[in-house]
Design brief:
The complex is a heterodimer.
Chain A lengths: L3 H19 L14 H14 L23 H17 L15 H28 L6 H12 L2 H11 L2 H16 L3 H14 L7 H15 L4 H21 L6 H11 L7 H17 L9 H11 L3 H13 L2 H6 L3 H19 L13 H10 L6 H25 L9 H31 L8
Chain B lengths: L2 H14 L9 H15 L2 H4 L13 H14 L17 H28 L13 H10 L2 H11 L2 H16 L3 H12 L9 H13 L16 H24 L3 H8 L15 H18 L31 H21 L3 H19 L9 H11 L3 H16 L10 H23 L9 H8 L1 H11 L5 H4 L3 H26 L11
The chains are: A mainly alpha, B mainly alpha.
EC number (chain A): 2.4.1.-
Family (chain A): Belongs to the ALG6/ALG8 glucosyltransferase family.
Pathway (chain A): Protein modification; protein glycosylation
Chain lengths: 455, 517
């Protein structure tokens, strides 16, 4: 592309923000006996390096599953093993069996943060860049601005580089999957998506649209000819990739079952995962844009319509999603990076997408909805006003709650008051978005396929 | 040029707040100590206090500035204001200090805004990002050197450079008295700006005190305005009186000056600033090694202490003659004379003044005594103003900036800072080169093959010094080699840029028209 240097600058900005955030604290820093996610990842390196594969998911004297037992699919385990080999080369103390529990040092933190950065750089960031380059009908500058805003999304940065996780790997693979299938590299796309599922089982939430989309493609090509061939090829790819990842665990039935038990702990509560699920699903859904071919919109319409270019709502939503993680971020002492990255993201969106100028009914894709409502209520002309006010109220509430949580102490009788309030406010916002997206889906599908392609 | 650039002006600053909690350099302790001194002790003690090794060595206005800050500091952490709390570094102290830098940067942002107003520049395209004003604002606000030195290493250069840029802007806007006043104030904040005082003095005398020129541009003696001279003198005198007055009354002026100008330090800082003396030292070293090998020199006669051992003391050269402070002063004066003469004999308005200022700063950097590598910023920041004007200036600016910024790398030597300095350097370098190339795309290329090669060589140099060298066996025997290589390599680039700028100033034709002011 002609503006390669601008793209380089944008990627560099993304990397700089990431590394700067990573200089802050991580989850469970200095908090024995359990510490946090950072210790969990280090522990997995210890387990996978020192123990044979058959013992990774089983409770034993060497592997106490109560202390951060492996509960992600095998690809995470292999990734941990790879990191462990590098760790062994630098300092074997970091992964020594048993004795390295709770190991914390500047050098080790540097190493762990570097692993996140390298994984991000290799998998997620190229996917984002390529995805934005493939967007149709928008200028080069807008594509680059898109990359910047996606890379600046605070939620992912704070969780991966602050709290400490490897979400960028699974999200990156999923994004590669989306890219693959939309550029007609179906096999590679489905392979990438299988890798995503095998890295974090959360990606199963996105598997349904994928499955439907690919199935639809096969139907389109005709089940008696090319479609059938494609179906078979896809099935083989999926099966092969799963077998490849799970090979060491397919040798015994008990192994497979134990892994499944670890991945889907039905006796654990739902609350732990609630926040992550919501932002994860919506976030990635929002990323899939108009690059999918029109004829599939019959099936992918819900996803497409949700994801077409509504910068105002997307920005609002992403801000709320970051805010919803406030209690967690405060626990990890990440207030400063949270505030700064959120502000940077907001400023970037405002500057490059002029979101405040895109609040008309048409820009928000609510035109057909309000026309229908106006049949019964002729005076219903203030929809975009309402939405703007709601946005203002939402932002003010979020800022106030943040200030209160930081400066005030909760009353003794209600120690979790602020966390609950944050969850409640976020939930209200999410419900609003749910209603909004449903309205869009229902009213625009009535319009048929004649609506112009929005860029 | 409304919302966009101003919003963009905000963006870089927000990044700094995240680097609040990383690096702890000695400069934190220096400024904490000064907060303590000015808060807890009476004025008569300020320049005598020596409990800590970091004694007050900036002029009085800076001391007053620290005094004002200390009154805010006491709400953050009272303990930092105790003079005996050496190396006190609670998180609140650090937080306060970092925020004070960010806060005082507001002046810098305002100064950049004023400078952008003065810059005309070519109008290449209608895009905002291609306008010279926008490029200039990014080059100044995102300046890598300033970011690193102020917000990571910790100093207050942001607002001091803000003062300097503001005074330059005022001179561009023909508000000479304000410009003179601002510069006088600046001098009493940090006396390093004496480097560029000749430029101010000569320009104000020539272009402000002489109100008109003859038709060929030369001086018209009878247009001399006594009123202006006297008012300028009065401004300078009043500012100096305000600053030094109290100390004059206390008979402490000699003590103050001895603190401000400590000549007991060596020719070079522990890490050689990439100036002429770095090349001189390197040559001396090379000659002495050759001399030893060829048995011209007696090993017993060579002084044991080498200049590369990293200590800040006085040393002798082995082969070439040793350099005294007087020698450096003479060299510096000789170096700035041609530019001063140009400013006097063929004045070209504010632009000529700016060039002369940059040349004064650069020449002082090249030949000064005990120059710190941070002083290169004194030349780089004003040069940014010229870079968006002419292609030739842009080319010199890019060489100077890239080399100068790279020479700041040794300031950050810990592992967590390595990715940051590399990323920020890449960001600034790629942006500056690409935006200036786009701005001047209709003219000949900015770099010739030699310059391109030299700049690209910085990459392998960095890899060798930071990644390859620590893994070799030479690390223990010759630990100074990366610093030496960096210093010498950058000195070559900076000398070249200085030379090129000088040539462009000397061969520029004078502006031939009558100027009425």
């Amino acid at each position: 592309m002609e503006k390669w240097y601008l793209m380089t600058i944008v990627v560099l900005i993304g990397l700089t923000v990431r590394w700067t955030v990573s200089l802050n604290s991580y989850s469970g820093a200095g908090k024995p006996p359990m510490f946090g996610d950072y210790e969990a990842q280090r522990h997995w390196q210890e387990i996978t390096f020192n123990l044979p594969v058959k013992q990774w998911y089983f409770n034993s004297s060497d592997n106490n599953l109560q202390y951060w037992g492996l509960d992600y699919p095998p690809l995470t385990a292999y990734h941990s093993l790879l990191c462990a080999y590098v760790a062994k080369f630098i300092n074997a103390d970091w992964i020594a069996l048993h004795t390295s529990r709770g190991y914390e040092s500047q050098a080790h933190k540097l190493f762990m943060r570097s692993t996140v950065l390298i994984a991000d750089l290799l998998i997620y960031i190229p996917a984002v860049v390529l995805y934005c380059c493939c967007l149709k009908e928008i200028s080069t500058k807008k594509k680059i601005a898109n990359v910047l805003c996606i890379l600046l999304y605070p939620g992912l940065i704070l969780i991966d580089y602050g709290h400490f996780q490897y979400n960028s790997v699974s999200l990156g693979f999923a994004l590669w999957g989306v890219l693959g299938v939309s550029c007609d590299w179906d096999l590679l796309g489905s392979l990438a998506f299988c890798l995503a599922i095998n890295y974090k089982q959360m990606e199963l939430y996105h598997s349904l649209p994928f499955f439907c989309f690919l199935l639809g493609k096969c139907f389109k090509k005709g089940l008696k000819g090319k479609g059938f061939v494609l179906l078979v090829k896809l099935a083989c790819t999926v099966v092969a990739s799963f077998i490849l990842c799970w090979l060491p665990f397919f040798t015994e039935r008990e192994q497979t079952l134990q892994v499944l038990r670890r991945l889907f702990p039905v006796d654990r509560g739902l609350f732990e995962d609630k926040v992550a699920n919501i932002w994860c699903s919506f976030n990635v859904l929002l990323k899939i844009k108009d690059i999918l071919p029109r004829h599939i919109q019959l099936i992918m319409r819900p996803v497409c319509l949700v994801l077409s270019d509504i910068p105002f709502m997307s920005t609002w939503f992403l801000l709320v999603s970051t805010f919803s993680m406030l209690p967690l971020l405060l626990k990890d002492e990440l207030l400063m990076p949270s505030v700064v990255t959120t502000m940077a993201f907001f400023i970037a969106c405002v500057t490059f997408f002029s979101i405040f100028e895109k609040t008309s009914e048409e820009e928000l894709q609510l035109k057909s909805f309000s026309i229908s409502v106006r049949k019964y209520l002729p005076c219903f002309t203030f929809l975009s006003r309402i939405i703007q006010y709601l946005f203002l109220i939402s932002v003010i509430t979020m800022v106030l709650l943040t200030l209160m949580t930081v400066t005030l102490d909760p009353p003794q009788k209600l120690p979790d008051l602020f966390s609950v309030l944050v969850c409640f406010v976020s939930c209200l916002n999410f419900l609003f978005f749910l209603v909004y997206f449903n309205i869009i889906i229902m009213w625009d599908s009535q319009n048929g396929r004649n609506q112009k392609k929005i860029s | 040029m409304d919302v966009g650039p101003r919003l963009k002006a905000w963006k870089p600053r927000s990044n700094h707040q995240m680097v609040v909690c990383i690096h702890y350099s000695t400069d934190f302790e220096v400024h904490r100590n000064w907060l303590a001194i000015t808060h807890s002790l009476p004025i008569s003690q300020w320049y005598y206090e020596a409990t800590s090794e970091w004694t007050l060595d900036y002029p009085p206005f800076f001391a007053w500035f620290e005094y004002i800050l200390s009154h805010v500091a006491k709400y953050f952490d009272q303990e930092m204001l105790n003079v005996h709390n050496l190396n006190y570094s609670s998180s609140r102290t650090l937080l306060f200090q970092r925020f004070s830098v960010i806060f005082t940067d507001i002046l810098f942002v305002y100064a950049v805004h004023e400078c952008c107003k003065c810059i005309g520049g070519k109008k290449v395209g209608k895009e905002l990002t291609e306008k010279p004003k926008f490029i200039l604002s990014v080059l100044l606000l995102w300046n890598f050197g300033l970011l690193i030195v102020d917000h990571i290493h910790f100093q207050y250069n942001g607002f001091l450079f803000g003062l300097m840029l503001l005074s330059i802007a005022r001179l561009f806007q023909k508000r000479h008295m304000e410009g003179a006043f601002l510069f006088a104030v600046l001098l009493h904040f940090k006396h390093i700006y004496l480097y560029v005082a000749p430029a101010y003095g000569v320009y104000l005398l020539r272009s402000y005190c002489f109100t008109a020129n003859k038709s060929d541009g030369s001086i018209r003696w009878n247009s001399f305005s006594f009123v202006r001279v006297i008012s300028l003198g009065l401004v300078v005198f009043l500012v100096s009186a305000l600053s030094l007055g109290p100390f004059l009354a206390l008979n402490q002026l000699p003590q103050v000056f001895s603190r401000l100008f400590p000549f007991k330090r060596g020719l070079c800082h522990a890490y050689w600033a990439p100036n002429f003396w770095a090349l001189y030292n390197a040559l001396d070293k090379v000659l002495s090694v050759i001399g030893l090998k060829l048995k011209f020199l007696d090993p017993n006669k060579i002084p044991k202490a080498s200049m590369t051992s990293g200590l800040v003391q006085q040393f002798q050269h082995t082969v070439l003659p040793s350099v005294t402070p007087l020698a450096t002063l003479i060299c510096t004066l000789i170096a700035i004379l041609p530019s001063i003469f140009c400013l006097w004999f063929k004045p070209q308005g504010p632009r000529g003044f700016l060039r002369c200022l940059i040349l004064c700063a650069l020449s002082s950097f090249m030949f000064g005594w005990h120059v710190h590598e941070k002083a290169i910023l004194l030349a780089i920041l004003p040069m940014s103003l010229l870079s968006v004007g002419k292609a030739g200036d842009a080319s010199v600016f890019l060489i100077l900036t890239t080399t100068g910024h790279y020479s700041l790398f040794p300031l950050l030597f810990t592992a967590p800072e390595l990715p940051i300095k590399i990323l920020l350097m890449l960001l600034f370098t790629i942006y500056s080169i690409s935006s200036l190339k786009t701005l001047f795309r209709k003219e000949k290329p900015l770099f010739n093959w030699m310059e391109t090669f030299y700049l690209l060589g910085l990459g392998p140099l960095e890899v060798c010094c930071e990644f390859v060298f620590p893994l070799t066996s030479w690390k223990l025997k010759y630990p100074f080699i990366p610093l030496l290589l960096t210093s010498v390599y950058c000195a070559v680039g900076i000398t070249y840029a200085w030379f090129k700028l000088y040539v462009s100033v000397l061969i520029d034709p004078p502006v031939v028209k009558t100027k009425k002011q």
